[in-house]
């Protein structure tokens, strides 16, 4: 039985997860996700414009990236939880009932990456420039979105008697069978919030300190987020498909770490210099006072043939590399 001290110092869960607004039902989970998207867009816009991109070009990219991220998140969730939607007595149409919950971040990353790539082709922004600009804001958005799990009282961890144990309503459908009322659980949402917030600070620091470009900062985002997710996912007790004794999202997180490391070292080898511009060659946008490549106009991709960048207002050649 848990001590009274643990109960007093535990983390309570909200008693409400939604509220009516006219004919609509507004879910706090959705508000957390939307707030994260807005914050990420503002941060990415600021970081891209400092590089010399057109202000708010990020909106054009988000028009494709955000919907495809939501679609990818839903598809990944359905594929990794087939028993929820397929089989005797199941409503197949529930696959499309995204408002009832059920999205996966790793699916969002895949769908969002496809949408961002298409958006970058559309706007002329280099995909890796956008990815690097996005990385800190994306991690912050994920931290904000996790508060939605707190409101929904879902995706919590194993039972614990630690002082910061999370209270869950005994009537909650996710309550593990056989556990007595009053049991506390690991607040995995809070662990991820803290880890992701620390990751934002790390990415901002390391990106500025080492001037990471060509996707290397985004690669570190993948490694950081996925490494933490391996731990938090391993102590969660919500239903999940198991392969070789490991939850599917743990496998996805391991894959995320590997992909991040591959991107980092491959891009470091392919592009030892700095990006000449956040735009693809021939698609440059210029404005008075624009600063390109974080005041690194003299640096170019040494793997590229010599060119004359008229729109950027600088002559770039192999001899300009420092």
UniProtKB/TrEMBL annotation:
<dbReference type="Pfam" id="PF01790">
    <property type="entry name" value="LGT"/>
</dbReference>
<keyword id="KW-0812">Transmembrane</keyword>
<dbReference type="InterPro" id="IPR001640">
    <property type="entry name" value="Lgt"/>
</dbReference>
<keyword id="KW-1133">Transmembrane helix</keyword>
<feature type="transmembrane region" description="Helical">
    <location>
        <begin position="214"/>
        <end position="232"/>
    </location>
</feature>
<protein>
    <recommendedName>
        <fullName>Phosphatidylglycerol--prolipoprotein diacylglyceryl transferase</fullName>
        <ecNumber>2.5.1.145</ecNumber>
    </recommendedName>
</protein>
<keyword id="KW-0472">Membrane</keyword>
<feature type="transmembrane region" description="Helical">
    <location>
        <begin position="189"/>
        <end position="207"/>
    </location>
</feature>
<dbReference type="GO" id="GO:0008961">
    <property type="term" value="F:phosphatidylglycerol-prolipoprotein diacylglyceryl transferase activity"/>
</dbReference>
<feature type="transmembrane region" description="Helical">
    <location>
        <begin position="244"/>
        <end position="266"/>
    </location>
</feature>
<feature type="region of interest" description="Disordered">
    <location>
        <begin position="299"/>
        <end position="322"/>
    </location>
</feature>
<feature type="compositionally biased region" description="Polar residues">
    <location>
        <begin position="305"/>
        <end position="322"/>
    </location>
</feature>
<keyword id="KW-1003">Cell membrane</keyword>
<feature type="transmembrane region" description="Helical">
    <location>
        <begin position="127"/>
        <end position="145"/>
    </location>
</feature>
<feature type="transmembrane region" description="Helical">
    <location>
        <begin position="26"/>
        <end position="44"/>
    </location>
</feature>
<keyword id="KW-0808">Transferase</keyword>
<feature type="transmembrane region" description="Helical">
    <location>
        <begin position="96"/>
        <end position="120"/>
    </location>
</feature>
<feature type="binding site">
    <location>
        <position position="146"/>
    </location>
    <ligand>
        <name>a 1,2-diacyl-sn-glycero-3-phospho-(1'-sn-glycerol)</name>
    </ligand>
</feature>
<comment type="similarity">
    <text>Belongs to the Lgt family.</text>
</comment>
<feature type="transmembrane region" description="Helical">
    <location>
        <begin position="56"/>
        <end position="76"/>
    </location>
</feature>
<comment type="pathway">
    <text>Protein modification; lipoprotein biosynthesis (diacylglyceryl transfer).</text>
</comment>
<comment type="function">
    <text>Catalyzes the transfer of the diacylglyceryl group from phosphatidylglycerol to the sulfhydryl group of the N-terminal cysteine of a prolipoprotein, the first step in the formation of mature lipoproteins.</text>
</comment>
């Amino acid at each position: 039985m848990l001590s009274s001290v643990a109960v007093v110092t535990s983390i309570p869960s909200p008693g409400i997860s939604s509220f009516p607004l006219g004919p609509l039902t507004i879910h706090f989970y959705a508000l957390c996700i939307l707030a994260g998207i807005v914050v990420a867009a503002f941060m990415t816009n600021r970081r891209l414009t400092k590089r010399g991109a057109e202000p708010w070009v990020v909106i054009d990219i988000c028009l494709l990236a955000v919907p495809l991220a939501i679609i990818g998140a839903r598809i990944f969730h359905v594929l990794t939880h087939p028993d929820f939607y397929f089989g005797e007595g199941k409503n197949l149409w529930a696959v499309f009932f995204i408002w009832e919950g059920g999205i996966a971040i790793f699916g969002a990353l895949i769908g969002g990456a496809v949408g961002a790539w298409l958006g970058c082709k559309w706007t002329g922004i280099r995909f890796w420039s956008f990815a690097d600009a996005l990385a800190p804001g994306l991690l912050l958005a994920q931290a904000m979105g996790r508060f939605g799990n707190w409101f929904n009282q879902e995706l919590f961890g194993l039972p614990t008697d630690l002082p910061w144990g999370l209270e869950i309503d005994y009537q909650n459908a996710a309550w593990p069978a056989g556990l007595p009322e009053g049991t506390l659980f690991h607040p995995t949402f809070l662990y991820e919030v803290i880890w992701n917030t620390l990751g934002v600070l790390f990415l901002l620091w390391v990106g500025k300190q080492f001037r990471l470009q060509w996707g290397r900062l985004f690669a570190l985002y993948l490694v950081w987020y996925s490494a933490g997710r391996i731990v938090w996912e391993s102590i969660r007790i919500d239903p999940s498909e198991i392969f070789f004794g490991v939850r599917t999202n743990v496998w996805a997180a391991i894959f995320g770490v590997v992909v991040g490391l591959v991107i980092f070292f491959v891009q470091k080898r392919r592009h030892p210099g700095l990006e000449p511009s956040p735009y693809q060659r021939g698609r440059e946008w210029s404005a008075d006072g624009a600063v390109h490549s974080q005041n690194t106009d003299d640096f170019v991709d040494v793997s590229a043939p010599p060119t004359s960048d008229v729109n950027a207002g600088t002559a770039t050649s192999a001899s300009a590399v420092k």
